[in-house]
Design goal:
- The chain folds into two domains: 9-245 and 462-477, 3-Layer(aba) Sandwich (Rossmann fold); 249-458, Glycogen Phosphorylase B (Rossmann fold, 3-Layer(aba) Sandwich), CATH 3.40.50.
- The radius of gyration is 23 Å and the shape is globular.
- 46% of the residues lie in helices and 19% in strands.
- The chain is an alpha/beta fold.
- The strands form three sheets. The protein has a ten-stranded mixed β-sheet with strand order 5-6-4-1-7-8-9-12-11-10, with helices on both faces.
- The longest helix is centred in the N-terminal third of the chain and has 21 residues, at 117-137.
- The structure holds adenosine-5'-diphosphate-glucose.
- Adenosine-5'-diphosphate-glucose is lined by residues 33-36, 38-39, 172-173, 245, 283-285, 318, 320, 361-362, 367, 384-389, 392.
């Protein structure tokens, strides 16, 4: 990869990349589905360094004597430092403040957002626990690369404890417009927390604009330079930029071209697709922001408006349960099952089921094989910071057979311009786009896919990480030297 990063690197996330669980056959690690981890693990394996995260697995203490687990266990490339949280901390910090407060608010689903002062206090204290661990483990002048809405206070807390560290914080989800942000009772503290960073990264220019407006509207003694995308605050300069996250397209291509995954991919078509049918896929965590129910509604609309398509389309939806401690997520999972059953009852017959469901996490390599096998993919998020599934689908389409239908409210739509845009709030329009996708000629599909693949080759995951970290290194060079 050859990144030009010189200083030691410390990554900080809420979720750990490897969760060690006790099983009947001993300890087994699980790699959780989730965009942040799938993006950062390969990076740290390459660069080496430290990763600090919440140790959430039942066997985590066993594999991390003294709180440190080598990754991978057999041939260590980096050190994973685990922070242990008690049930009250998990509830207040993770389940309540982050997942029931900041998550829906940032995705503009305000009627779902719940805030409480009690949860806020726990959130702040858990952030401080992370900050203390960072302060203890980080080598002098290290680059700290911290992440997301669970750790919004971390940058300023770290700065207080260790002013020698350079801090980049990346916000993976959308940044809400100010009128929505201000509904969060602690929005000013959240902003102050983030402004402790030297570099603040967002997925899109829209997010950067929304953030700068929020800062301007919230504080009197601040100056925002929109052209340079800088905030001047408390005698410091904070760079605020869009760094769209991406995938490692080269690695994904070689996975799908491997003999095993090629066989798996062909096997999927042999089993699922008959007589010229087209195979569609979707892959999501069962999260209400991903637009899973609107997608099923659009499919229903599609089969109603285009009856000649019945029997011609098989749709495979892969949905993995997530955040099951939050009741809204359990309810959504049940709702998806009901809707799926209903569509199959209403339109299916003995020979054909329109929607097939897989309700678990799928091994990454096989997932790429599914993407390769598909004729189209539906990414229908209501709001989404980026959406890596869209980029993974494009990467895995080495036969260039497939069409991507992509929500225009997902960050990925800013880059993947040759996808067919869909509005998940418009079932009739969504159904019409699906009809258009199915009718596209092989040549049209190839040209679109080629253009998106070219884009991903020019903007890889490593470019994303390198851009952020080199920006951080550059803007903090002066104070490291002094
Ligand atoms: P997520 O909301 O988790 O990420 P996304 O970007 O789509 O969303 O990443 C999901 C990841 O999990 C993908 O790598 C996908 O392949 C994997 N995955 C999902 N379902 C799976 C299943 N059933 N089996 C196996 N793997 C599965 C957050 C933001 C996004 C942003 C990312 C990265 O919400 O907008 O793109 O961070 O910044």
């Amino acid at each position: 990869m050859g990144t030009p990063i010189q200083r030691p690197l410390v990554v900080v996330t809420n979720r750990e990349p490897y969760v060690d669980e006790r099983t009947r056959h001993g300890v087994r690690y699980v790699q959780k589905a989730g965009g942040v981890v799938s993006a950062l693990d390969p990076l740290l394996r390459e660069l080496g360094g430290d990763w600090i995260a919440w140790g959430s697995g039942s066997a985590d203490r066993l594999t991390a004597p003294g709180g440190v687990r080598p990754v991978p266990l057999s041939d260590p490339k980096y050190r994973l430092h685990r922070i242990y949280l008690n049930p009250e901390e998990i509830q207040g910090f993770y389940t309540r403040y982050a997942n029931q407060g900041l998550w829906p608010l940032s995705h503009l689903l305000i009627e779902r957002a719940r805030f409480s002062r009690r949860a806020w206090t726990i959130y702040r204290n858990v952030n401080l626990k992370f900050a203390r661990r960072v302060a203890r483990e980080s080598p002098a002048s290290a680059l700290i690369f911290s992440h997301d809405y669970q750790l919004a206070l971390l940058p300023s807390q770290i700065r207080q404890l260790r002013p020698d560290l350079a801090i980049a914080h990346f916000w993976h989800i959308p940044w809400p417009v100010f009128t929505v942000l201000r509904l969060c009772p602690q929005y000013q503290e959240i902003l102050r927390g983030l402004l402790g960073a030297d570099v603040l990264g967002f997925q899109t220019d829209d997010d950067v604009e929304a953030f700068l407006t929020s800062v301007e509207r919230s504080f009197r003694h601040v100056s925002v330079d929109r052209q340079r995308r800088q905030v001047h605050w408390q005698s410091r300069v904070i760079e605020v930029r869009a760094f769209p996250i991406s995938v490692d397209i080269n690695a994904l291509e070689s996975i799908v071209r491997s003999p095993r995954i090629t066989r798996w991919s062909r096997g999927i078509r042999r089993h699922l697709v008959h007589d010229g049918q087209q195979l569609g896929v979707s892959v999501d965590r069962a999260d209400y922001t991903k637009g899973i129910i609107p997608r099923l509604e659009a499919l229903r609309e599609f089969f109603r408006r285009y009856p000649h398509r019945r029997g011609q389309v098989v749709f495979l939806q892969v949905v993995v349960p997530t955040r099951s401690e939050v009741s809204a997520y359990r309810a959504l999972f049940r709702h998806v099952e009901q809707e799926t059953r209903r569509i199959n009852q209403d339109f299916g017959n003995n020979d054909w089921q329109p929607v097939l469901s897989v309700r678990r996490s799928i091994d990454r390599k096989r997932l790429m094989g599914i993407f390769r096998a598909a004729d189209f993919a539906l990414v229908s998020s209501l709001f989404d910071g980026m959406n890596l599934v869209a980029k993974e689908f494009v990467s895995a389409q080495v036969d260039q057979r497939g069409v991507l239908l992509l929500s225009e409210t997902a960050g990925a739509s800013h880059e993947l311009e040759e996808a067919l845009a869909i509005n998940p709030w418009d079932p009739e329009g969504f159904a019409a786009s699906l009809e258009q996708a199915l009718s596209l000629s092989p040549e049209d599909r190839r040209v679109r896919m080629q253009a998106m693949q070219d884009h991903l080759h020019q903007h890889t995951l490593y470019d994303w990480a390198t851009d952020i970290l080199t920006t951080l290194e550059q803007v903090t060079a002066a104070y490291v030297e002094s």
